[in-house]
User: Fold this.
Amino acid sequence: MRPAANFALWTVWGLFVAVATLAIGVIWFPQLPVRQPLAFNHVRHQPMACVLCHRGVETRAFAGIPDIATCLNCHATPPVKTPAEVATWNTAVQAQHMTWHTATRLPDHVYFSHRRHVELVQLDCAACHGNMADRTTPPAQPLKPISMNNCLDCHRQQSASTDCARCHK
Amino acid sequence: MPRWGMAIDLDRCTGCQACVVACKQENNVPFSTPAQADQGRQISWLYLQTEIEGAYPHVQVRFRPMLCQHCDRPPCTFVCPTSATYKNEEGLVAQIYPRCIGCRYCANACPYSVKSFNYDEPVWPKQLAASLNKDVSVRYKGVIEKCTFCSHRLTRAREQAAAEGRALREEEYQPACVQACPANAMVFGDLDNPHSRVAQWSASPRAERLLEDLGTKPKVTYLKGGV
Amino acid sequence: MNATTNTSGRVSRRAFLKFAAFTGAGITLGRCLRDYALQHEVFRQRWGEGPGLETFTLSICRQCPAGCGLRVRLVDGDAKKLDGNPLCPLARGTTCPKGQAGLQALYNPDRLLGPVKRVGPRGSGRWQRIRWNDALAEVQSKLSALRTAGHPQALAWIAERDDATQGQLIRRWMHAYGSPHLFEFVDTRDAAARAAMKLCQGVDEFPAYDLEHAHYILSFGTPVLEAWLSPTWLARQYGRLHRGRADYRGRFVQIEARLSPTAVKADEWIPVNPGTETALALALAHVLIREDLYDRALVADHTTGFDGDDGFRALVLRDYAPDDVAQRTGVPATTILRLARELATNKPAVALGEQVPLSGGVVLAWAVHALNALNGMVDRAGGVLTQRALPLKPLAETTLPGGAPAAPAALTELLAGGTVEALFVSSSRCCAVAPEGGKLFAAAEKVPFIVSFSSALDDSAAFADLILPDHAPLEKWQDAAPLPVHGRPVWAVSAPALEPLLDTRHIGEVVLELGRSLGAFPWKDFPAVLRFVAAGLFEARRGGPFSTSYETAWTNQLETGGWWIPSAKTFDEFWEQVLKAGGWFDPIYTYEQWPRVLRTASGKLELGGPPKIQQPWIGDEREFPLKLHVFTTLTTGGLNDPNQPFLQETLGPHVHARWEDWVELNPQTAQRLGIANGDGVWLESPLGKARLRAYVFAGAQPDVASVLIGHAHRAGGAFVQRTARGVADLVAYRTDATGAPLAATTRVRITKATGGP
Assistant:
C-alpha cells in the first residue's frame, strides 16, 4: 500500500509543480534571448543621437535598425577585435547586409508608430526602450517589457486616446 | 469630433463588385475554399446583396453593396461579453481581434448579417502572402471580423496630418471600396459636416437607411435607384 | 513513514532533485510553449519584416484587353494594392473588380518558376525546368530549320489583338520571318461590329461609342456593365448617365434573352427570344420610317441604299412590321412602338449591337448600325463614332498580317490541315471561348512543335512542348493602345512596378532576340522600342501626357479652337512626362468629319445589301427542347487566367454563384425537368455533354438554358478545380461572313445528375 500511495502522492505533487512552473514560465519569463551578430556597444556611440543610426524613427511607423551601410559611413576598418567578429563584419560588408535582430517586438495586431510618439509628441526613446544608451553589450531581452498595460498607463497619464481601434489593427 | 458615415447611390451603382474585391485586397480578407463556400462560411466584409422579386417576365432584381452599417446604436456591441466589438467616439464600430473569444453573439445580434466568423484557420499561400496589407491584422481561426470603414487609413491619415501640422482633411480618409468605385456611386465623410458630400447625399429625398425601425441608427445611407 | 520524507520536514536529496527537475522542465517547457504560441499567432509577421517603406508607382492593368492605367502601392517592394491611375482617361483613379484582383495574378502560387520543357507525352503534365539559353536555342533551331527548308509559313502564332508595341513587334517579326499565319483574338469585342463598320462605312475597325454624351442607351444584348470595352470606363458612364447631370436623368434599356447583371441595372429589361434581336432592331427602324421620326437630312446627305425598290426602306417596311416581329421576338408590338419613339425623342440616343463572347452576327451589327444612322446618331455627339488613329510611329511599313479579324474556325482549319509545323501561343483566350473548342485542341495536337508564353499551366500551356513564361504585367515595361472605346486616341505606358519575381522573360525581349538573326530588329531592348514608337506621339503635335479631367477639358477647348501648346521641348522631356503621367491622350473628337468616317467607295454610309440572316438552330427540337444562350461575367470575360480566388468568389452575385460554372433555368422549366436550385445537372447538346450546377432564376427565360462560357478551362491552377470542363465544346460553331462564332445556334437538353451537386 505504501509504495502505491507514495507514487500517487508524488504524481499529484509533480503535476502540480509542473503546471505551476509552466504557468510561471509562460507568464513571468520574457521571450527567448536575442543574440546579435556583433556585441554592439551603445556607450561607445554615446554622444550621437539615436536617430542618427535609427533612421526613420521620426518619419515612419517602423524605427529601423541600421544596416551595415550606416556603420560604414564612419567605420572604414572593422570596429571589432576578435577574429570571429572580424569575420562576421567582413562577411556583412561583402554581402552589404548585417542581420540584426529585433529585441523589442510588437504583436501583429498592434499598430505602433514611432513617428507619432517620437516626432509628434517628443517622447524620449528611453520611455519605452529603457536606458539603451548605457549598454555596452546588446541586451538579450528588451530592457523594459512591452505590454499593453505600460502603453495604457502612459496614455492615461498623457490623456492620449485609449480607443482600442487606434492601436489595434 | 467627426461622425464618419457612407452613402451609396444605387442609381449609379452597376453591381460590378469592384468595391467587394478592393475590400478583400485591402483588408487581408481570407478567401474561402469551394467547400467552405458551400457551407456558407465565405468571409466578406462587403458583398453584393441580391434581392429577387416577381416572376418572369416581370422580375425585379436589386443589387445592394452590403457592409457593416456602423450603427449609432449597434446591436452587436450590446451583446459582446468581452467588449471586443464596441463603438468608438467617432462612431466607428470596431472589432478587436485579440479580445474576441469567438462566441458569435454579435454575429447573431447583427440584423444586417455583416459579421463573419473564421471557422477555419485562413490559408494564405506563401506567394500571395506578399500582397498582405501590413496595416491590417491577419486574422486567425475563432474570431469574428467585419468592415472597419478601413479605420487603419484614418489612423495613417491623421498621423500624416499631424506630422504636417494641420487638421485632417476629410477627403484624405477614404475606405478602399469608395476609392475603387468606378461609377462614383459611393461617398464617405463626416456626416456632421453639412458641406460634405456624404451629408448632402444622406439628406436626399431618395435616401433610405436599412431596418431603421429597429432603432439601430445606421450610418450607411442608400440612395434608391430607378427614380 | 517512507524513505523520502520524514516528520522533521527535512527534504531529502532525492526529493529536492525531483522537485528541481520538475521546476526546471516546467519553466523551460513554459517558455518554449509561450514562444511557440507567440511565434505562431502574435508575431507571425506574414507580411515580411521590412521597414514598411511605402511607395507608389504606375502600371497598366492587363486583366482584360482594355489596358486601364494603374497606380500600385508598394511596401518594401511588395505590391500591396492596385488602384486606378487618377490621370488615366479610362480609369480616372478607379478600377473594375478584375483590376482590383490583379495582385492575385502577380502573386499567383501556380505561376511557372521559369521556362520548362515537356518530358512525358503531351498532356501528361510532366515538365522539366530548363535554362533560358537552351530554350531559346531550341526555338531558334526549329525556326531556322523551317526557314531554310523554305516554308516559313509553316509557323503560326495565336496572340491577343494588341495594337500596342508588343503586338506590333509580333506582327513585324511574323512578317520578317515570312509567315502570314498570325491569329489575333479579342473576346471583349464583337467581330461582327467591326464587319458592319466595314460594310457601312468602309472603316475596318471596331466602332467607338460616345456614351459620355448619350442621354439614352438602347442595348441589343450588349453586356454594357460586364466584360465589354473597358468596364471601368463603362461604369463611370453609367453613373453619369443616371446621376451625372443635375437636370436630366438618362435612360438605359437592355434587350436580352436573360436578366443579366446588365439587365438588372438597366432602367428597363426587355426579354427577347435568343437570336431574334436583328428583327427587333429592324422593326424599330420600321417604326422610325413609318412615323417619320428618322433623321431625313443625314439619311439624304450621307447614306446610300435607303431608297429604291430593294432599298433599306422598302425592306424594313415590307418585312419588319412590329406586329409580325412581335411574334418572332416575343416583344409586344406596343413595346416596339414605344422603344422606337423613345429612341427618336431622347437624343442623343445610341443603340448598341455588340454581343460577346459570341457574336450576334454581322446582320445584327448591321441592323443596329443602320438604326443609329436612321436616328442621326452616326458621328454625332452621343452616338457611334469612328476611332481616331493613334499616331504611334509604325514598326513595320506593311501592316500585314496584323489587324485582320481572326476566326477560330480558320485557325482550326489551318491546324487540322497538317501544314503547320510550329505553333506559338501567347494568349489562351481563343481557346476559352471558341465554340467546338475540342476541335481546335484536336487540331493543335497535330502540330509537332508548340511553344507557349503562358505564365502558368493554363489551356495554351497544357498542350505545349516548351513554355517560355512571360513576366506578369506589373513586372514589365509595357504599353497599351486600347481598342476603340470613345473614339479618342489613348496610349498608356509604364515601367515595371517591381522586379520580376521569377525566372521569366518579356515576350517582347524574346521576340527581339529571335528577330536579331532576321536582321530587322535594330533595337537594344524593349524599352528602346517603346521610345521609338512614342516618337510618333511627340511629332504628332497634338494631345499630351495624361492629365486631370480639368486640364483635359482645357486641352480639348484649345484644340477645338485650333490651338495646341506643347508640353515639352525635347523628346526626352516629353518621354519623361508621359512616363510620369502613365500615358498620352488626345481628348478631342470633331464630329461629322464625313470624309474621314465614311470611307466607302461612294463616300456615303451604305445601308443597302443587308447581310444574310443566320442559319437555323442546331439540334432537333423534340430531342433538345431548350435553346442555349451563352454569357460571360464581368469577372471572367477577357481575363487571361481565371485562377484568382477573389474573382472566383464573386462570379455571379445574382444567383450566388461562385467557384464553378453554372446554367440558369427558369423556375417553370426547372420544375418540369425536376431540377431544384443548386442541383448538379448534365447539359447535353448534339455535340456532347458537360456537368454543371443549375441555378433556378426568375430572370431566366422559359425554355432557354443560359450558360457561362469562357471560364471553364481544360487545365488550370488550384483555384479553378471546380470549374466545368469543355462547356464551350457543346456550342455549335456557326458563323457568317466575318467568321465570328454566332451566339444563338444550339439546342440542348438538361437532365438531373445523380450523386451530389
